[in-house]
Design brief:
By secondary structure, this protein is mostly helical. The chain is about 80% helix and about 0% strand. The protein has one domain.
Length: about 325
């Protein structure tokens, strides 16, 4: 139980950072392209994690007295797989957001709602992976989707061209969560995250030189230095590492539900930065999402479900 709580706390902290980072991502988009931002933030994230990974290794060796390698075949394979999934997801999301903004076919709220659809895809993928779902998970996912809709979708829901990219982004984030879930028990989380960012930086860097040449300049990168540093240090270096380590102590479905709170914290951050109060609709959505987390993190729903169906089975 303590391990589950530890993992949940890590995931919540990561989600708070991601929600806050959205403000900085919007600011960065005024100066640099999507691939440039993802490349730069991944480089910063990797640089930040190099000393952390080395220090953590030395502490483990000192504690156990057993020498170990910082990089192993499993951590390299896992990090590359995580990095590929992350690069695909992050760049698809940014393409979808920019595409919808340019065509005036949607706002960031709807983008957040579609992206967070991985809370549906992850349980489905888990079932195909041979894992059983508790009643509380199913109930919490349905509540989470409803809460996300109230928070994110303001003026009805229409499907736009950019939404296809966002839906593919949700699929890619599902892949990322499942890959992390697979490798986190086999390799050191910090090393896994470090290699993940190196991989994501290489992929985004290649795409940057192909598609972002019009805005790619040292002056523009310097103008976006603050957003890049925040996204690189906090959103990438800290938050994604907390995700990987946190998932070690949490089931993939529970982890995806907690991380979907990004929309909630994004709304809170926007209210704080732009000095505006949330609407009644947004408030209702927040309450529903928090209730969804309560449902999945406590045994009450499963106990009630077991009592009802056990009683019916005995009748």
């Amino acid at each position: 139980m303590k391990s589950n709580l530890k993992g949940s706390i890590m995931l919540v902290i990561a989600t708070v950072i991601w929600g806050t980072a959205f403000v900085f991502q919007e600011e960065a988009a005024e100066f640099i392209g999507s691939f440039t931002l993802n490349c730069m933030r991944s480089i910063v994230g990797a640089v930040v994690l190099i000393p952390v990974a080395l220090i953590m290794k030395q502490l483990r060796v000192k504690k156990t007295g057993i020498p170990e390698r910082l990089v192993t075949k499993t951590s390299v394979l896992g990090g590359i797989c995580c990095g590929i999934a992350l690069a695909i997801a992050a760049n698809l999301q940014q393409i979808g957001i920019v595409f919808n903004a340019e065509m005036a076919e949607g706002d960031s709220g709807k983008a957040g709602f579609i992206t967070a659809m991985y809370i549906i895809f992850v349980p489905i993928a888990s079932v195909f992976g041979g894992k059983k779902l508790r009643f509380s998970m199913i109930a919490a996912v349905l509540l989470g989707v409803l809460g996300l809709y109230f928070i994110s979708v303001k003026d009805g829901f229409t499907v736009s061209s950019g939404d296809i990219y966002l839906l593919l982004c949700a699929v890619a984030f599902t892949g990322h969560i499942m890959v992390v879930d697979h490798f986190v028990q086999k390799a050191d989380g910090v090393t896994l995250s470090l290699i993940q960012f190196v991989t994501a930086a290489v992929i985004s860097g290649v795409l940057m030189f192909v598609f972002d040449r019009d805005t790619l300049s040292f002056a523009n990168i310097l103008s976006a230095a603050v957003p890049i540093l925040f996204c690189g240090v906090m959103s990438s270096g800290v938050a994604y590492t907390l995700q990987i380590v946190g998932q070690k102590y949490s089931e993939a479905t529970v982890a995806s539900l907690i991380m979907s709170l990004e929309s909630l914290f994004c709304m809170v951050a926007a209210c704080a930065f732009y000095a505006k109060l949330p609407t009644l609709r947004e408030g209702i959505g927040c309450v529903i999402m928090l209730f969804a987390i309560f449902v999945v993190e406590t045994p009450f729903a499963d106990r009630i479900y077991a009592k009802i169906f056990k009683k019916k089975a005995n009748q």
